[in-house]
Amino acid sequence: QKEVEQNSGPLSVPEGAIASLNCTYSDRGSQSFFWYRQYSGKSPELIMFIYSNGDKEDGRFTAQLNKASQYVSLLIRDSQPSDSATYLCAVMSGGSNYKLTFGKGTLLTVNP
Amino acid sequence: GAVVSQHPSWVICKSGTSVKIECRSLDFQATTMFWYRQFPKQSLMLMATSNEGSKATYEQGVEKDKFLINHASLTLSTLTVTSAHPEDSSFYICSARALGLYQETQYFGPGTRLLVL
């Protein structure tokens, strides 16, 4: 059973702070890792993806991957109230079915 | 990024009727589309994988005769909820696998909110 675990939160940070979201996965064969943002009542929106160990930065977002520890994280710098949403970690395993396994999501609240 | 549309965005129907939801990839071809369901305050639940030109693959516990999936072209997949009942009320979201110019991942449609009375 492939599992993706996230702290459900809620995670509350003040505006301008760094929000740190964490995710662990069970399948060592996993190859691709994604972070989606889902606002209440809306569908998920892709924020970032990462394949290789290390950090990947895109604007205020940084994804970090450590395959040895089976751990992936998302850092949001200079958090804004508009970042308040549920963040979903998703993992794509090797193989040909291209299915994503999602975590249950972490609810982030950025307080003005 | 890749754009996926869904139609309708919301639907209210009487118990026992069938509802068809369309999922379209607008600016790319999608050989594979996925159908999810999400109940309030819960995570996404994958219902089925839809491959163009072949039968859909359903997840365990999902009734294939109740949730009919057709993926007749590279840009369109449809989900039909047959004989809908109040317990089928949910947020149905499709996603499409993008290749080529876009990142190999799933891009989601805006979702269809179904309310069965």
Structural overview:
The complex is a heterodimer of chains A (112) and B (117). In chain A, a hairpin with a 4-residue loop joins strand 7 and strand 8 (71-76). In chain A, 0% of the residues lie in helices and 57% in strands. The radius of gyration of chain A is 13 Å and the shape is globular. The termini of chain A are far apart. Chain A is mainly beta and 112 residues long. Chain B has 117 residues and is mainly beta. Helices cover 0% and strands 53% of the residues of chain B. The N and C termini of chain B lie far apart (36 Å). The mean pLDDT of chain B is 91. The chains are: A mainly beta (112), B mainly beta (117). Chain A binds chain B through residues 32, 34, 36, 42-46, 49, 88, 90, 92, 97-100, 102-105, and chain B through 1, 32, 34, 42-44, 46, 49, 57, 93, 97, 103-111.
β-sheet strand percentage of chain A: over 45%
Q: Return the structural class of chain A.
A: mainly beta
Question: Which geometry of chain A do the CA atoms define?
Answer: globular
Total helix count of chain B?
Answer: 0
Shape label of chain B? globular
Outline the low-pLDDT stretches of chain B.
none
Cα-to-Cα separation, first versus last residue of chain B: 36 Å
Oligomer: heterodimer
Report the uncertain regions of chain A.
none
Helix proportion of residues of chain B, in percent?
A: under 10%
Helix content of chain A: under 10%
Largest sheet of chain A: 6 strands, mixed
Structural class of chain B: mainly beta
Order of helices and strands of chain B: EEEEEEEEEEE
Would you report the number of β strands of chain B? 11
H/E element sequence of chain A? EEEEEEEEEEE
